[in-house]
């Protein structure tokens, strides 16, 4: 049994679709005098948009004054304990009869050709799914090669039967919602040399063919796809397996998709929420440029009915935190007083590589990490021409704590500077971003690796990961 989830996302306020000009009469046995719910898929979430109370005859009506956006909808059990799926498209006045005792075989529909087609397809897939499971179980226990071959051939026949059934549905019902869904579920078929590439050239050709045909027949302006559970999975697979993992490639694909989606409010909303959530907290360092691009092109000068002020502030604040420290760009200069009170500039430090370490003298983790950083420095990095520029951010500690830690751990070969609360306030009071914002410091210690020109090579990694990057750079990789 599937369960409801509720839509909660970044403070994004997702208003339910305008509910009018639909009337869905439901008989849902054995429930009586209880509320049932109407929801829909929205990627991996299930927002509820309507409710209705079943009477003593187990009957209720979902009703509104505007048409619902097309897609796969969900009729939720009382207490939101589960749901069954229905299709909603052009015909939005129909009747459903369902009984939990027979629901595994499907509900009954009146005046809904889309759902009758959908039920027939589900029943066909249930039979095929059962048979495929049986064959897979047999394959695991096959006693010899002949049995394995026979079972594998049968599995291939069942798979072909499913494909043939889907293509027949599409051919006979080209304008149906189910056909649109089945087209979206298609995967490019590799044949001949593409299926079994013999060399790198064949593999590249197969990759280009598969990627080039991955979205065949899929229209990104079709908002109905946003109301499905599998469209988001198809997008995830595309970006995870087919798009080159660098900001230029990802940004190009995002702009391509949103270019078409912009003419459909539901799809535009779906993709923007999808992408902004994906890149809000980056999995890889280079993804900072993707998030900043999303902000600058789609959020900084635009407003959306589904995005509240809290959500917009979250996006804006995160973008401003990343703008000054995008991977591959020059790091912001820092000029703060050292132990003697003399201002020391980051850019005045001449080195093949520079590690910038933001830390707090009262931070327990910093007390553990900084001596280990120095061990790496003494053992490897010093000979590599690397230098350390350490920014001690005053929080609960004092200059005395700072100076004591440096002395106790013999870190005198580093360039140390002190970032007091007063210095931070002076910058922000004058409308100048603080160094913590410029370097997106959200925890201590925060480590950056810069090249000889002070461009950001890596950020927010462990000292072990920074060492791996330094060693790769030395090898010219």
> What can be said about the biggest beta sheet?
5 strands, mixed
The radius of gyration over CA amounts to: 29 Å
Oligomer: single chain
Identify the overall geometry. Answer: elongated
Ranges where pLDDT stays below 50 over 5 or more residues in a row are 1-19
Average predicted confidence as pLDDT: 92
Structural notes for this entry:
With 477 residues, the chain is an alpha+beta fold. The protein has helices at 113-140, 145-172, 177-185, 200-213, 231-242, 247-261, 265-280, 288-299, 309-323, 364-381, 399-408, 421-429, 435-438, 463-474, and strands at residues 22-29, 35-40, 48-53, 59-64, 71-76, 83-88, 93-99, 108-110, 335-337, 343-345, 353-359, 386-393, 415-419, 446-450, 456-459. It is elongated. The two termini are 51 Å apart.
Give descriptors for this structure:
single chain, 477 residues, alpha+beta, Immunoglobulin-like, 4 domains, 5-stranded mixed β-sheet, 4-stranded mixed β-sheet, 15 strands, elongated, disordered N terminus
């Amino acid at each position: 049994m599937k369960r409801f989830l509720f839509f909660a996302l970044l403070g994004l306020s997702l208003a339910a679709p305008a509910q009018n000009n639909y009337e869905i009469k439901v008989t849902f046995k054995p429930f009586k005098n209880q509320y049932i719910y109407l929801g829909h898929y929205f990627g991996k979430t299930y927002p509820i948009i309507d409710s209705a109370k079943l009477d003593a005859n187990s009957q209720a009506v979902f009703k509104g004054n505007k048409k619902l956006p097309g897609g796969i909808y969900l009729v939720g059990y009382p207490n939101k304990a589960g749901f069954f799926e229905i299709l909603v498209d052009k015909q939005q006045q129909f009747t459903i009869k369902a009984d939990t005792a027979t629901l595994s075989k499907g509900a009954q529909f009146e005046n809904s050709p889309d759902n009758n087609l959908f039920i027939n397809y589900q029943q066909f897939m249930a039979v095929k799914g059962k048979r495929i499971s049986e064959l897979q179980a047999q394959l695991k226990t096959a006693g010899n090669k002949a049995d394995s071959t026979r079972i594998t051939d049968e599995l291939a026949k069942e798979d072909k039967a499913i494909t043939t059934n889907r293509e027949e549905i599409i051919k006979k019902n080209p304008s149906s919602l189910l056909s649109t869904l089945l087209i979206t579920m298609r995967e490019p078929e590799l044949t001949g040399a593409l299926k079994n590439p013999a060399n790198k050239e064949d593999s590249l050709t197969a990759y280009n063919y598969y990627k080039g045909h991955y979205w065949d027949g899929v229209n990104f302006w079709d908002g109905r796809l946003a109301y499905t559970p599998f469209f988001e999975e198809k997008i995830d697979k595309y970006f995870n397996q087919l798009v080159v993992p660098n900001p230029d490639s990802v940004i190009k694909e995002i702009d391509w998709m949103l270019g078409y989606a912009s003419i459909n409010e539901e799809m535009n909303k779906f993709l923007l929420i999808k992408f902004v959530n994906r890149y809000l907290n980056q999995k890889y360092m280079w993804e900072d440029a993707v998030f900043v691009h999303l902000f600058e092109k789609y959020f900084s000068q635009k407003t959306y009915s589904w995005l509240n002020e809290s959500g917009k502030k979250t996006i804006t604040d995160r973008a401003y935190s990343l703008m000054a420290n995008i991977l591959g760009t020059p790091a912001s200069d820092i000029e703060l007083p050292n132990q003697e009170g003399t201002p020391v500039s980051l850019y005045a430090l001449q080195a093949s590589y520079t590690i910038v370490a933001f830390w707090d003298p009262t931070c327990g983790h910093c007390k553990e990490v900084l001596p280990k950083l120095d061990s790496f420095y003494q053992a490897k990095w010093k000979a590599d021409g690397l230098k350390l520029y350490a920014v001690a951010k005053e929080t609960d500690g004092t200059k005395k704590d700072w100076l004591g830690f440096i002395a106790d751990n013999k870190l005198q070969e580093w360039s140390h500077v002190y970032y007091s609360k007063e210095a931070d306030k002076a910058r922000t009071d004058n409308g100048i971003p603080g160094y913590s914002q410029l370097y997106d410091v959200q925890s201590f210690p925060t480590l950056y690796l810069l090249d000889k020109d002070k461009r950001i090579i890596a950020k927010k990694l462990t000292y072990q990961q920074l060492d791996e990057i330094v060693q790769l750079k030395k090898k010219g990789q």
